[in-house]
Amino acid sequence: MENGENMIYLQPKEKLNIIQGTSIYVEDICEIIGEAKLIEKVKNIEILQGTYEKTVFVVSLVMVLDKIRNSFPELYIYVLNEKDILIQVEETKNIKTTIFEKIKIVLVCLLLLIGAGVTMMNFHADVNMVEAQKNFYKMVTGKNVEKPLWIAIPYSLGIGIGMMVFFNHLSPKKRKTDQPSPLDLEMDSYQNNIDDFMRNNKKESKN
């Protein structure tokens, strides 16, 4: 008969990053709820060990339940999330950033800057922004000028300020709110799509 003394709840984690050669235990891939003595026993059950040939693989939730059942056949287990666990294996982390990595970061930033600049210039050329600003200046003042700077300068500043406001990065030190920016949401959605794809396509083994 079910009772609190032999019953636990498992909340599998969606993703786990481990170092190569590190064993995986139940506590690493699941949140465990139940009696303290049961948690102590279950959390140290080993799921996988050894060197992993793949850098990305999936641990099946069924595998986790089988491991627990083999150790505690009388235990009642309730699963709160039925997703399998995505495992990403990393080599030993090197906290030092090499000169080559710094150069790559600089080159990527320059590439993005140049690409964004060219895109904006092409857009303004397509819509003929110069003529549009001249016409707007004439409509407001009644005069024809070649360089309506009092329109062009605020417009240029507004593009940069508007982007910072839109992406919620107006303050370089700290955001005024914890609300995620559109870029944060897009990156999170992109990462979730990658994780779901790998979870659905990787074999449920470490090899």
Could you give the distance between the termini? 39 Å
SS strand fraction: 15-25%
Supply the number of helical segments.
Answer: 7
Query: What fraction, in percent, of the residue positions are helical?
Result: 40-55%
Order of strands in the sheet with most strands:
4-1-7
> How big is the Rg?
28 Å
SS class:
alpha/beta
H/E element sequence: EEEHEHEEHEEHHHH
Low-confidence runs (pLDDT<50, min 5 residues)?
203-207
Based on DSSP secondary structure assignment, what is the total number of beta strands?
A: 8
Please outline the major beta sheet: 3 strands, mixed
Can you tell me the overall shape?
elongated
Mean pLDDT: 82
* Tally of discrete structural domains: 2
Organism: Irregularibacter muris
Pfam family, one: SporV_AA
Keywords: Membrane, Transmembrane, Transmembrane helix
Transmembrane segments: 105-125, 149-167
Textual characterization of the structure:
The chain is built from seven helices and eight strands, in the order E-E-E-H-E-H-E-E-H-E-E-H-H-H-H. The protein has about 210 residues and is of the alpha/beta class. It has two domains: about 5-90, Sandwich (eubacterium ventriosum atcc fold); about 100-190, no CATH class. The strands form three sheets. A three-stranded mixed sheet has the order 4-1-7. The protein has a three-stranded mixed sheet with strand order 2-8-6. It is elongated and about 90 Å long. Mean pLDDT is about 80; it is low at about 205.
